[in-house]
Amino acid sequence: MGFIVLAAVNSTGWIPSSVQAFANDLSGWCLVVAISALGMKTQLKELARVGIKPIVLMVGETVFLALLVIAMLRFEP
């Protein structure tokens, strides 16, 4: 619910662009910290137990995201 309220308030134009930029940067850093925390809890021994399919999927998703980011940075208008 809070996300919807923030999106609505942001759409009104009442929030200065400097605050929007700060919130965007903060959001990105929070995402990086969350993903890092998940990676720290992952143990390779446990991954080996689940089988090859989830590992292949995880590697495939990582490669896809990396290529997507590189393409977006390279072909930015």
Strand content: under 5%
Q: What string, H for helix and E for strand, traces the elements in order?
A: HHHH
Shape: elongated
Radius of gyration: 18 Å
Oligomer designation: single chain
The helix fraction, in percent, is: over 70%
Number of DSSP helical runs: 4
- Uncertain stretches: none
Report the sheet with the most strands, covering strand number, pairing sense and barrel closure.
none
User: What is the SS-derived class?
Assistant: mainly alpha
Distance between the termini: 34 Å
Q: Look at the structure and give the mean pLDDT.
A: 86
Describe the model:
It is a single chain. The protein is mainly α and about 80 residues long. Helices cover about 85% and strands about 0% of the residues. It has helices at about 1-10, 15-40, 45-50, 50-75. It starts with a helix and ends with a helix. The model has no long low-confidence stretch (mean pLDDT about 85).
